[in-house]
Amino acid sequence: MFGSVGICEMNRRVRRKCARGSQRLDLPNYPETEDADYLKLSEEGVVDWTRLPDDTVLQLFTHLNYRDRANLSSTCKSWRSLGASPCLWQSLDLRAHKCDWGITDSFPMRQPPKASVSWGRQCDSLINLRAKNLKELSGDYCRKLTDSTLAVIVARHKLLRASNSGPISVNDDAIVAIAFCCPNLRKLRLSGIRDVNGEAINALAKHCPNLTEIGFIDCLSIDEVALANVVSLRFLSVAGTTNVKWGSVGEHWCKLPNLKGLDVSRTDVVPNVVVRFFSSLKSLKILCAFNCASIEEDTSVVIKSKSHGKMLLSFFNDTFKEISPLFPDTEKERDVFSDWRKESKSKTKDENLDEIMTWLEWILSHSLLRIAESNPHGLDQFWLSQGADLLLNLMQSSQEDVQERAATGLATFVVIDDENANVDVGRAEAVMKGGGIQLLLGLARSWKEGLQSEATKAIANLSVNPAFAKSVAAGGGITILANLARSMNRLVAEEAAGGLWNLSVGEEHKGAIAEAGGIKALVDLIFKWPRGGDGVLERAAGALANLAADDKCSMEVANVGGINALVTLARKCKHEGVQEQAARALANLAAHGDSNTNNAAVGQETGALEALVLLIRSQHDGVRQEAAGALWNLSFDDRNREGIATAGGVEALVALAHSCSNASASLQERAAGALWGLSVSEANSIAIGREGGVAPLISLARSQTEDVHETAAGALWNLAFNPGNALRIVEDGGVPALIHLCSSSLSKMARFMAALALAYMFDGRMDEYALVGSSSEGSLKSVGLERARRMALKHIETFVLTFADPQAFNAAALSSLPAPLAQVTDSARILEAGHLRCSGAEIGRFVAMLRNQSPVLKACAAFALLQFTVPGGRHAPHHVNLLQVSGAPRVLRAAAAAASAPMEAKIFARIVLRNLEHHQLESSV
């Protein structure tokens, strides 16, 4: 009692039917009863569902997928019997399931009058299948299918009337076996066969008298002469087949007396052969020639087709207009498919027309998908004017495989750059205008997992476009995707996770995904398919990474076990795409240190820091970049800094900084940023210097990118706090690099931190390290350091003066009122500097600089303390507290009043004192 993707109507007469979209499924004739009589509450207030009438239960079964039908059948004996009803097993789709020999052998022998089976990569297990009434076999990507396996399958199922497989690797022997074993064969569609010789085709002609349709698609060669012997053919497709001898074709195929439809798309057919078909094949109605270069270059072929009353379908004419003569009562040409479907349901339907349109739907879906996959240039106008509408019409077909291919075609043709996932805006808009969102969401709601998977893939790809994503969300698509992410079918769950990944890019969708339960569904996916599901794992981790960038969503990720799941991926998964997204998700989770505890939680997760350090050594730049970003964010927590260092993070990050000189700016920025974060700790700072981390940071400081300037300058600033590192910076040529940053970078923050690094280096603490060694070496070092010191101080002074507005300074010098000082603050403030957090030792060092003999260092120290204490700064209260504890107000007052101090030092010191008073007043209130 099973089958496959194909949908077959039953001939049984029944009293009740269950409508499901355009399909109607016949149900057995059970006594009709009122459901309400059976749903009365028991004394305990519980509904006894087992008392439902049989026909109602059967209707319930029809809305479930195969797995859920089987599960529901196991609840009780009566439902087990109902669940085995033949009407529920007209088809069985095995493509997404692993079916070994034991499973297929356990399938029940009793079959309904008609059934179909679709299989995928586990096609060899079907050799055990014994379904005596099986009428149709179809398979996708059956490269492992051998001649012997196919021969055994068809030998056991001699009632087969249709076979649809591709691409497969069988040869002529399999075709001969089909011909001998299946005399009732009506349709044979095979794809990807290397050669189809005359013996195989003649066997079909001899043993299959009812064979009306053949499709040898994307084959290498076929025997054109032998095909003329299959006189029963009404439809033939050789689309994508190469090495066709068209001269022989024109002579022999014109002998096919019943041929109504011919498909030569994606071949090198020549115009004169096509014209000969028009004149010689009297029965021919439609010829498809999509993506045939020679036909497209000779527009006279269109005129000749019309003169013979034939329909030629190609890129250069309107398909809807071409086939509209088949429906003279149709008012709008774009409605021909929908009008035909309505007519086909009526009692007066035209069987001949049904046959033509059914074949045409299949051919169009196949051709459009193949063309979309190859994405040839010059088809923009075709896709916009009719291609999108054709796919949307085909999505409404009653043929399930046509619907699937049309949805896949939509998913494919909108993507114009696979590498960067770029979607063509015009094509996405064409899908929206044609009602594509509603159609795709409708298919995604289907119980059929094949349709769910392909429709969801299209929704995912199209959702790269913000407008489309917004419409999907408005149409309830987020809830649909969240539900599909819980599917037991891995392919469906994978595509749903991809849809949530793309939708989660939009900030406005993150909350809706969380509310729909999407975050838990994504986390559960990681635990559900920990191995063998790289696609689903990468998409789930990517979606979680986007969602973790939102503060509230990041807490939800942590609450449902997301940290453990992501760390598990980072530790155990070897797929680079999964590693990259897992590291990115952990980086985003750790980025909310001020608003939640995820930063600490990630660091405390067993194996998290070790896994990220290991990923730093990956050969894949994307993995290294995201892992470095995660360590950078995690390094803001003191415990994490220690853990990273213990796990070998210093050595790994120094090695990364050495190796990324020619890498992307993002990787350089994060490598330097992680070292910057680690170097906050004095022990780590010393370790970075000892491991050779100074030289690569100096190299990164010379980058052409502002973001890299900032992180490299920040790391060098922290390292320069240690006199030994300061000397290394000088010896490795860091002074010119820092001077260049201080004077030339377009980033104020890079210039500021470069100036502070230079101030640390030349405030006198490095001198004693420079004198170590022989007296001659010490003298040379002293001369070199003095020269470097003069250059550094000169550029520090220049930097500070760029923030000293002369007019504002003069007004502040002559007045004790707050307004002039506020004006100086406004012109001198660097907004980003408010994010910097200094330790007590660093604040103490700036206070000490206020006593330094150098007027430049005094001004620089006062300028720095101004930045760190401006009201509203992120860490201003922290810095104010440190200054109060260190007794800085007395030093600041002395600097503000010193006659020998430069004006900028005095005024900046006054502003810092004013900032301290402001914070003191605020705290007292």
Short note summarizing the structure:
The chain has about 900 residues and is α/β, with parallel strands linked by helices.
Q: Give the count of helical stretches.
A: 51
What is the strand tally? 16
Helix content: 55-70%
Q: What form results from the Cα inertia axes? A: elongated
Strand line-up of the largest beta sheet: 3-4-5-6-7-9-11-12-13-14
Which key features would you list for this structure?
disordered N terminus, 7% strand, two-stranded antiparallel ribbon, ten-stranded parallel sheet, 925 residues, 59% helix, single chain, alpha/beta
Task: Explain this structure.
- With 925 residues, this protein is of the alpha/beta class.
- It contains 51 helices and 16 strands.
- The strands form 4 sheets. It has a 10-stranded parallel β-sheet with strand order 3-4-5-6-7-9-11-12-13-14. It has a two-stranded antiparallel sheet with strand order 1-2. A two-stranded parallel sheet has the order 8-10.
- β12, α11 (271-280) and β13 (286-288) form a beta-alpha-beta unit.
- α10 (246-252) packs parallel to α11 and α41 (734-744) packs parallel to α44.
- It is elongated.
- Residues 1-35, 101-106 and 108-115 have low confidence and may be disordered.
- InterPro entries: ARM-like (IPR011989), ARM-type_fold (IPR016024), Armadillo (IPR000225), F-box-like_dom_sf (IPR036047), F-box_dom (IPR001810), Leu-rich_rpt_Cys-con_subtyp (IPR006553), LRR_dom_sf (IPR032675).
- Keywords: Repeat.
- Residues 46-92 form the F-box domain.
- This is F-box domain-containing protein.
- ARM repeats lie at residues 476-518, 517-562, 561-592, 607-649, 648-693, 692-734.
